[in-house]
């Protein structure tokens, strides 16, 4: 039993070639989500933070879905990864919406109408 030597080649830990765009897009989405959450915490009442964060995450999911839809089929696994990230962001956004207070979001929307 060799604990000092890994049987996994180092090359398999590196992302496949051509995935730099995926890494940049995912990093940008995470940075934008963190910045939006910090801005929402600073500028909004606490009861509105989760609905606003949920809306931002669902919009980010829509952006990733558009990227995946527009990607040519030759991209292969990267295109599938964009769809997976879009689904993940949508799921996290919907979970954030569940944590929020729906009365506050409805009141905000009704105030905007008037």
Report the biggest beta sheet as strand number plus sense, adding barrel if it closes: none
Terminal CA distance reads 72 Å
Counted beta strands: 0
Count of the separate structural domains:
1
Query: Which series of helices and strands comes N to C?
Result: HHHH
Secondary structure: helix percent: over 70%
Number of helices: 4
Global structural class: mainly alpha
Mean pLDDT: 78
Rg calculated over all Cα atoms: 19 Å
* Low-confidence region ranges: none
**Strand portion, in percent?**
under 5%
3D shape: elongated
Kindly describe this structure:
Helix content is 71%, strand content 0%. With 114 residues, the chain is mainly alpha-helical. Helix 1 packs antiparallel against helix 2 (49-70) and helix 2 (49-70) packs antiparallel against helix 3. The chain starts with 19 loop residues before the first helix and ends with a helix. The model has no long low-confidence stretch (mean pLDDT 78).
Task: Summarize the model shown.
By secondary structure, the protein is mostly helical. It has helices at residues 20-43, 49-70, 77-99, 102-113.
Characteristics of this structure?
about 110 residues, single chain, 4 helices, mainly alpha
